[in-house]
Amino acid sequence: MIRTPLRPLARILEARNRGENPDAIERENIRLRHEEMRDRARRRAEGRLLVLAVMFFCAFGVVGGRMAVLAGSEPAEPRTSVAGAQIQAQRADIVDREGRILATNFDTHSLYAQPQQMIDPEHAAEKLAEIFPDLKQDDLLRDFTGKRKFLWIKRKLSPEQKQAVHDIGEPGLLFGPREMRLYPNGRLAAHVLGGAGFGREGVHAAEVIGVAGIERFYDERLRDPARAHEPLTLSLDLSVQAAMERVLYGGMKIMNAKGAAGILMDVHTGEVVAVASLPDFDPNDRPAPPVSGRPSDSPLFNRAVQGVYELGSTFKTFAVAQAMELGLVSPDTMIDTKSPMTWGRFKIRDFHNYGPELSVSKVIVKSSNVGTARIAMEIGATRQRAFLEQLGFMEPSPLEISEAARSQPLLPKNWSELSTMTISYGHGLSTTPMHLAAAYATIANGGRRVTPTLLRTKDAAPGPRVVSTQTAAAIRKMLREVVTDGTASLGEVAGYAVGGKTGTADKPKENGGGYHKDKVIATFASIFPAHDPKYVLVVSLDEPVETSGDEPRRTAGWTAVPIAAEIIRRVAPLMGLRPEIEPSELAAIRQTSN
């Protein structure tokens, strides 16, 4: 910018020639300069005010537009969520091994109210209380006449309930589309499926999330929109599951037990074909978790994977299998069984007096605590613990339901020689029936460790070897003799060559201080057919009492065994197993002449 001088020389000379005062020229130039500076500052300020006005106009326009959008939208219950996140309601189906539906989705409606639009709140509250007996008329009327502008009334409605609410004719009662989880088989496999509930909710959709069981374990996979069309296929067989639950329920009632569990497992793949826990529930109307009392008294309690029990003489099988694997004994080795056996101030007794000695086979067949304890002393605590760890007894079951991961087996704090002896016959170590089923499957399949699974598997890789095929075959023969000549004689099923081991363990008192004398956990772990095992079946009863005789009987041979036999009789044909004649050992052939 060219700055005009205040005293230009040409004008000064010209003014002097005319006799004027040159200072007047300087004053006039100063005045003009100041006026120019003033005009320039005014224009700058006016430009800034214009920009600021435009910015304020845009901001108020955005706020007003957003308010108009909110005013025109339907109200929704406030939820903490990411702004703009869409609620994903679709969820994949769950099917059994044959493709039959276990869990699917069902279109229904929710019911909510906008009290400011209601014409007759008192009439609406009265009619709603008639339609929904669990709602109280006074509470509804208080909500309808209060300051609330929105409230949920029912998260899901049946078609009949929706029509009844529609007939009220109240414009303030509104319906929203809703997708819910449906279990068409009701209580069947309830503990496996677990159930689902609602997560984030809006009036147009609700997020369906798994709350327990396999629904919770595979929640992300079931909610994945990319796999919504792909059902989750379980190893369960719907027909076998129904038959087992029916027999188990009847047996629990006949034996006066407070609870029962049953597990049917493929010995080669670890697939769980059926698993039940009683009492059970309907996942369509899942009860609330208990807030008092013992968790095991709730129907939500899964005894098959959450019930951590001492499983009694079923553990004798593992002690003998390990001793044979170590070369310490053979099936014909004679064991000292003089009863009682004294260790310090403790005494170990047998249920009956079996004489001064028994063979290893007879220790299993007769179920001798003393004989098993003496075998365990030869094994030692370190080797016993390592063997049981190989069988999976030291960690929670890897089964694909959320409750299994929280069922840690209870181990002795000090694995002493006394612990070694008592654990060998199933006392001092508490575990779940699912652990027991997997361990028996390991023996039944020839000695390779089995990992239980609820998923349908096509090519299951064999697990690491735990015992040799020779040891496993010898143990299977002993288990067969337990049924033909031992404590499980009521477990015989014609044509299926059942083998197994009974276990009756005194139930510990809830607050410590020893064991109940008249309460037991009765368990029967069985394999069939014993000469070529295909399946393991474990049946466990909580506090059973068989009362058909003169005296009450609580042992597994009288309670769990006949229930297991009936289950095998019902389900074996459903799984394609035909009755067959059990192969007998070949007699010795001698050459009599050339």
Plain-language structure description:
The chain has 17 helices and 16 strands. It has helices spanning 9-17, 22-72, 121-131, 137-144, 159-168, 190-193, 213-217, 219-223, 238-254, 316-325, 360-366, 369-379, 381-390, 417-424, 433-444, 469-485, 560-574, and strands at residues 94-95, 101-113, 151-157, 173-182, 195-201, 206-212, 232-233, 259-266, 272-278, 334-336, 341-343, 346-348, 357-359, 499-508, 515-528, 535-542. The strands form 5 sheets. Strands 1, 2, 3, 4 and 7 form a 5-stranded mixed β-sheet that branches. A hairpin with a 2-residue loop joins strand 11 (341-343) and strand 12. It starts with 8 loop residues before the first helix and ends in a 20-residue tail after the last helix. 42% of the residues are buried.
Write a brief caption for the model.
This protein has 594 residues and is of the alpha+beta class.
First and last CA, distance: 138 Å
Uncertain runs are 79-85
Query: Which percent band covers the strand fraction?
Result: 15-25%
Rg for CA atoms: 40 Å
Q: In this structure, how is the largest beta sheet organized? A: 5 strands, mixed
Secondary structure category:
alpha+beta
Which whole number gives the mean pLDDT? 89
Query: What count of helical segments does DSSP give?
Result: 17
* Molecular shape: elongated
Helix content range of the residues, please?
A: 25-40%
Extended strand count:
16
